[in-house]
Amino acid sequence: MGALGKVFKYLKPYWKLVLLSIVMLIIVVAFDLLIPRLTQRAIDEGINAGNLQIVISSALLILGASLLSALFAIINSTASIVASQRFSHDLREALFRKIQQFSFGNLDHLGTGELLVNLTSDMNMVEMAARMLMRIATRAPLMMVGAIFMIFRTSTFLGYRVLIIMGVVVVLIGFLIPRLQKLFTSVQQKLDKLNTVLQENLSGMRVIKSFVRQDYESQRFETANEDFTKLNITTGRLMGGLFPLMFFILNIGIVIVVYSGGNQVIQGTLTLGEMIAFLNYLGMVMFPLLFLAMIIGMLASAGASAKRIWTVLSAAEEVVDRPSAQEMPAIKGQVEFKNVSFSYRAKSENGDIKHGDPVLKNINFSVKPGETVAILGATGSGKTSLVNLIARLYEVTEGQVLIDGIDVRDVTQESLQSQIGIALQEAILFSGTIGDNIRYGRPQASEEEIQRAARVAQAEDFINSFAEGYEYHVGERGANLSGGQKQRVSIARAVAMDPAILILDDSTSAVDVDTEARIQEEMAEVLKGRTSFIIAQRISTVLGADKIIVLDDGEICSVGNHQELMQRCPVYRDIYTSQLGNGGVNNDNRN
Amino acid sequence: MTTATKSSRSSSAPRRGPGRGHGSMPIESVKDFRQTTRRLFKYFAKFKWALIVTVFLVIGYTLLGLVNPILLGRAIDVNILQSDLEGLRQTAVLMLVVFFSSAALQFTASFIMASVSQRMLKQIRTELFDHLQQLSLKFFDENQAGDLMSRLTNDIDAINRAISQNITQLIGNLLTVVGVVIVMVTLNLWLTLAAMIVTPIMFFVTGRIAILSRKNFRRLQGATGELNAVMEETISGQRAVKIFRQNRSAIQQFGQANDEVRNVGIRALTISMVLMPLMSFMGNMDVAVIIGIGGWLAVSGIGGVTVGLIATFVNYVQRFTEPLRHISELYNSLQSALAGAERVFKILDTEPEMIDLPDALPVDDIAGDVRFENVSFSYVEDVPVMKKFNLHAKAGETIALVGPTGAGKTTTINLLSRFYDIDEGAIYIDNNEIKTLKVDDLRRSLGIVLQDNFLFSGTVMDNIRYGRLDATDEEVYEAARLANAETFIHRLPEGYNTQLSERASNLSQGQRQLLSIARAILANPKILILDEATSSVDTRTEKHIQEALLRLMEGRTAFVIAHRLSTIRNADQVLVINGGEIIERGTHHELLALRGFYYNLYMSQFKGKTIEELEVALG
Fold first, then answer.
1. Which domains does chain A possess?
2. The pairing of beta strand A353-367 with beta strand A335-347
3. Which of A40, A259, A521 to mutate to test the interface with B (most CBs of B within 10 A)?
């Protein structure tokens, strides 16, 4: 539970509230412990002594004590809620801000899905743990200790007898908790398995229907379903058996008190009121004991959540501005790679983050301001990695990336990235209007600039086909646009930034050839006077570039224009001919 | 001692599996209470006897629970105060017996219920899953996978909680309340009346607080939904946020939502948490009243009140307030279970896709002649996607479908597979209208390789075998070899036994494509459909795939959809589709000579070069 402690340092600013709620809790417990004593007084000195005044005054005292106890309990719950809500608010904010500092590398390791779980479920678990620690988790042991103390004060003789019973309960809980937890873990695993089958089934429905595999799928589900059900029955039976057992043991304690205590009352060594008070205290010891099992389980999973949160909070940002970092002056557009090698850092099996195999090896090239550079190569040859280094989205492993002769590591990320426009491979849009989305990179862009960017990206036609035009509301993640439309908005967004360097990372893969050609035509105007990098699969896209860089397995095969590459670079020739369908020509001949 | 929390209110955020949440569930209500309940009860029918036994067990242990306070009173009044040691021993033994039987009954009840509830849930899950298999693609177009997942997990979990715990608890609690009142009245009317003084106040106060807390929890639900939406969108689009440096505005947006959750959360939780101390105060108040009034009656010797009776009543009063408090909680939980059940039933009520006609023909051996005659179709009413569409592919021909996005290429294939039924016209395979064929047989004779080449978790072997479950290992190897997949499979750490991770993320897209081709080869279909099968693969990998595909297409009727014109140069017929109609048809060379739509499409891909230049470049 060390991680829980680390995370709880966000509770520090609210230490007064925490202290208040704990103090209140102690008072509440004190009052609760007082009530059986007052009952005892009412019986012994009141009813049995025939003293009406003491009966009435005891009743009033009980009323007063419970009223105060309730009041203090309300103060306790309010203080603990305020503290825990503020705590979780602050922790969530810290986590969110931390994520905003992350570079692409961090996001690769941590995974956006995981991060979301951290921000939601994990956060709730930790908040709940904080609240519990200020309430029930402290109250239960406090109550137990207090009640045990009172038990022995009331009757040492009976105290030792019930101590044995308590011992049995403690041993039983200690024995069962680890087993139950193990069982719960495997239930969770079976559930995950069931969900995997389901998830795959739903996403692969077209394939399933094509191959007519519905029955096979039902069988797969049946197996997972039966496993899950069986384990759930076992767990349910165990849990169902546990509570009656615990209560029975507790009740044995009551019988012992009634019998032995009754004996003592008859012998005159114990009063009736004391015996009844003793019974009450016994309940106060036993009930928290039952909750203790639940609390321990809860704290354990909160601990696991806290650990995950802490992993994120304590992750080192991979790309950090140097203390001496300067503002990047206005970029002219000269880009140079000097002996650049790069490898992604990956999480190894034991959780360490290590450099993997190099993705780029000894890359050297230089681009003059205003040039259009096409990057070509097979999937996994390092194209995306190369352009990501220009904007310093990752840190080079070796060598230098220079823009206008300045190492990108010597300037602030903000000043560098604000001058580079990127259309990513995956077009990520946000909910809001289409206009908002295009304006995303430069909120101050004018209406006219937005429209021009849309025109260049060939997005104007489809935007105008919406009744609302640029006010058309894009759903979360661009759900109501097609893949090609999303890509075009994403290109428009990069263009609207009016950047000194423009990077298009395979950003027209879902656009049909015709539209792509038109984008290229319009783009020519935009590309004038700025350096641009275009990653593409289609050879037609790269034919007009000033320079073509051909990557082969992380190394530059060659840099040059089309004619030069046709002569120098066999990989390029290969791509070129394969794309024009050499095989097809042979077939034609055969026909 | 329950702690209300807000762990399970997120609707859209991912969770580590359902059922971990505690406390207040989202507050929901069922639309048709009667209908849903009745239907849910039908699932119990199979377990009728087990349930009847359980109800008796619950009644049994609840009643036994009511006996103990009387025994305690007897121990005090009759035994201890009369110094009757032997009697005390008897009473103690009796108490022990009652405690034991109560525990035994309770244990048996939970033992039975654990099995009954889980078996019933399994049945619902199975029915739902099997039904989903029968639904049309249209249904999956309209319902997001995430929502369906939630039906099968969260909703069923809500039903689970209700039936595995709440129903028995509800019966027990109601019975306890009624039983306690009856026993108290028979024991002593005056003390009962004294004990009841507090009850109306309790009802009033808890009712008020419950309403207030409900209102605030609903607001909290809204605020949390808002926060989750902001987080989900920002985090999943984090890379775009980063490169456009919108971190500050994201933080600001988040900050507002986060503040709101904190503020609303403090209010909602504080209100709901006031309930507990108040309830326990009122419980104690009852004790005070009974001691006060009972003590007064005992001292004054009115109404036969004794110390033992007071002890009994104190005990009963505590048993009376607990269940009352739980009943409203149980009611809420039942409501959300029923709401979940209602949604599940709604899916079960969705009509399955086209069912075979009673006299549907089996499809044994087909030649592969495919004809579309005047086919019209629309996905959404009044938005026609296909108009009077005609097509004829002779057995063994390769047909390429070309055209801009949304022109209707994929629709053609959807209709041939009968994923959707046509509005007008007819589609024939070997002169049999496909409507008259068994759907399963029809699909078995078609082999489809999709752009999104979906693979399942499992081994490479399993995935290829998915094409034909009874294929031998040798046949699988052969299919992989034909698909050019053998080389990379051998390079995998465990060859054919390599486990693919979920969605096969440990393979490249090209490798996944090769596996899905091997899968189609193994299925050995008479008609082959390749829908953008190579669009997102680099051209060198594509060459491998191309070879495999050519091998696959040999001797079969094939439909090929592709963006890349190079893929379709060797088709027997090229159909250029635009706006749901065929606007040009012919071979590649014929269409180029036509200098029409196809020519322009082709040229746009090799802008700036003349055809002649290109043909030269190709050698």
1. 2-313 (1.20.1560.10)
2. antiparallel
3. A259
